[in-house]
Amino acid sequence: MTEATNPTVALPDLDEGLRRLGFAAFRPGQRESVEVLLEQRRLLLVAPTGGGKSLAYQLPGTLLPGTTLVVSPLISLMHDQVAALGERGVKATYLAATLEEEELRRRMAAAARGEYKLIYVAPERLAHEGFRGLLQRLQCPLVAVDEAHCISEWGHDFRPEYMQIGEVLAALDGVRVLACTATATPVVRDEILERLNLPPDT
User: pTM of whole model > 0.85?
Assistant: First the structure.
């Protein structure tokens, strides 16, 4: 599920980053997932709900320079994660159609100034020209695709808006990509890999 494109990259201090996020220790498999993502730049992470998948992008997002983009279909989850990060001193925001237009513009302007470490967006936001323009101005080290099974036409939660993610990734040269899901049949997994241009199992 990974691609060894830069095996000699120097890893940031994961333990210190973990402490800054308020955690005492990694859960099983979390450190390995983060290390693979940082070193090899591509990862499909399949883990059960409640298994701590969000740390696999939140920790790198706080340690890497620039602004990490998280694509999530659940506004309530985006809101909760942004609030939790804020309580831990991490500047994060979300962009969704539920926001007032003035507030949305304010957040996008702050993002363009590089004020956030993580930005959460609903997949529908990827189609907006204004947001595409913002992405080109961001230094984006990582794109995390949460609920990645929504990209599969064979999945029961298929979201057509997820089909735009591959196009977005193609415009971000050298970006790391993490796809997260709690459930993926072999067919769905293969479609995720194909649509996000992730390498097959090695």
Answer: yes
